[in-house]
Design goal:
Layout: E1 14-17, E2 24-26, H1 30-40, H2 47-67, H3 75-92, H4 99-109, E3 116-118, H5 122-131, E4 135-140, H6 146-152, E5 159-164, H7 165-168, H8 175-185, E6 192-196, H9 199-208, E7 212-216, E8 230-231, H10 234-240
Parallel strand pairs: 1-4, 1-6, 4-5, 6-7, 7-8
Antiparallel strand pairs: 2-3
Helix pairs in contact: 1-4, 2-3, 3-4
Length: about 250
């Protein structure tokens, strides 16, 4: 991992955040959510089967994302992705029930804020940044329910804008979704930071419009050496800005 690069805090007005693996995690866990939905339909799986199914679903998502990420650009396709991904999970664990119906149930389940939790560092860091006068907003490849989730979770009090790809019809790393965010806040790109967990979507996307990118890696270390600051949590963002946590 490269040496930490400092960012001049006096030259930053706004900070944009990705959501998945940056701010939110499923509650209590993806495995437990899947188990709960399966139980509603009268099915159960072993821990080993659950793990195999989740790995298959993750693989399916990454392959879809790499081949054609346009599903994030509208609500219909974004919701269908969830259904299809859960169908892959069900097939892997050997369940032959109505996969579309169960996939839709999973999608609906994740439409409520109590199905998600923020990572423990999120609210303390948001409070610290707001106290310093930074303007905060979200830019995420997410379905149209993101603003409601933020409201349900009490994050709306910190945010000036919540921009989901399905609502604006644009997908990271398309520079235009970052342009939308900059326009909403009325800030210059070189006075902004964007932090997210995906190098392709977040780092390259932000850099394409002149926003300072920061890569967050909560669960893994990159095999290459990213050409941008890398942090393991949002407290690392405070370190970049040379702010002390409170």
């Amino acid at each position: 991992m490269p040496a930490m690069q400092k960012i001049d805090a006096q030259q930053i007005d706004a900070i944009f955040f990705d959501v998945g693996n940056t701010l939110f995690m499923p509650h209590p866990s993806m495995a437990e959510v899947c188990r709960h939905v399966l139980q509603q339909f009268g099915y159960s799986v072993t821990d080993e089967e659950m793990q195999k199914g989740l790995i298959a679903a993750d693989r399916y998502y990454e392959e879809r994302y790499r081949s054609d990420d346009s599903f994030w650009a509208n609500e219909k396709d974004a919701s269908q992705l969830w259904v299809d991904m859960y169908g892959v999970f069900l097939k892997e664990v050997g369940i032959d029930g109505d996969r579309n119906l169960m996939g839709r149930a999973l999608y609906d389940y994740f439409g409520h804020g109590d199905r998600w939790r923020t990572f423990p560092d999120v609210v303390p860091v948001f409070k610290r940044l707001k106290a310093e006068g930074y303007r905060l907003a979200l830019i995420s490849n997410w379905d149209a329910r993101l603003a409601k989730l933020c409201f349900d979770m009490g994050l709306d009090r910190y945010l000036e804008a919540v921009i989901s790809s399905a609502m604006v019809g644009l997908i990271k790393p398309d520079p235009h979704i970052f342009d939308v965010a900059l326009e909403r806040l009325g800030v210059a790109p070189d006075r902004s930071i964007h932090i997210g967990d995906h190098y392709y979507a977040d780092v390259l996307g932000a850099r394409s419009v002149g926003i300072h990118p920061v890569l967050i890696q909560r669960f893994w270390s990159s095999e290459h050496r990213p050409d941008c600051p890398v942090v393991k949590d949002l407290y690392g963002l405070l370190d970049l800005l040379e702010l002390e946590a409170q």
